[in-house]
Amino acid sequence: MEWTDRHYRYFARLITRHTLLYTEMVTTGALLHGDRERFLGYSEQEQPLALQLGGSHAGELAECARLAEAAGYREVNLNVGCPSDRVQNNLIGACLMGHPELVVDGVKAMLDACSIPVTVKHRIGINGRDSYEQLADFVGRVHEAGCETFIVHARIAILEGLSPKENREVPPLRYEVVHRLKADFPQLEIVLNGGLTDLDVMQEQLQGLDGVMVGREAYHNPYMLAEVDRRFFGDDAPVRSRIEVLEALRPYIAAHLAQGDALHHVTRHILGLFQGLPGARHFRRRLSTEIHRTEQPLAFFDDVVVDMAGRVAG
Hints:
Layout: H1 6-13, E1 21-27, H2 28-33, H3 36-40, E2 49-54, H4 58-71, E3 75-80, H5 85-88, H6 100-113, E4 118-126, H7 132-144, E5 149-157, H8 164-167, H9 175-184, E6 189-193, H10 199-205, E7 211-213, H11 216-220, H12 228-233, H13 242-258, H14 264-267, H15 280-288, H16 297-313
Parallel strand pairs: 1-2, 2-3, 3-4, 4-5, 5-6, 6-7
Helix pairs in contact: 4-6, 6-7, 13-16
């Protein structure tokens, strides 16, 4: 949430053509009663694109699934993995693994309401319900409701005592559980999530699985996506350099500024573009501090691109 917004997704699409991109988790209440354009809006260039929902009321999930299909999303995903206290209080996220009947009802209602795929993202368990048998029962019941794709974060979620950040790091990763799930449900599409930062590891894990989902690494080190199209989708088309990515982003930024919006709304998402290269810290500093002092944002952006082109070339 607040990371994979439409600006980040447009930027990511300049690096990878084929990767399926996901929205931030949008709660059903926010979508039904809030700024619908803000939560549903996207640029066509972002496709293929999935809408990620948080909620547990079947009727609300169904209406949001209808809205997702009408807006042109390729997939609607129900989040049963977020461990935040804030969402737990509203029966959203990982706590739903303790209420599989709500997930079953929600998935059925969503599938009845739309013709696009309905997928579920979940943990391998939660504290108190962390056995493999309970995980298999959850997946089996949700599959019987009609879900064919499960995106599995290979950690349990500890719902009391750990922050969301700690829940992404403290419980151990157990990739073998996800592979066992695929072996027991070979007819399902099983996608691995959690702790994936290295393309070689991802390729290794794909032996026996149907996909991988990458979160934080794709945000903090976005240029890792530059190799994905060739390696995983067989697309040998030329890959944009980092400088070419910035140049391709310029018209989008110009249009954003012309609407009266701020440059940092977009550039806060590109701070990791030069990660691991000389000048990466300089790039982050300019876009984090100097950006707020400029009165000519587009000219400032152009100067940053020229500056980094010289540094990369050097």
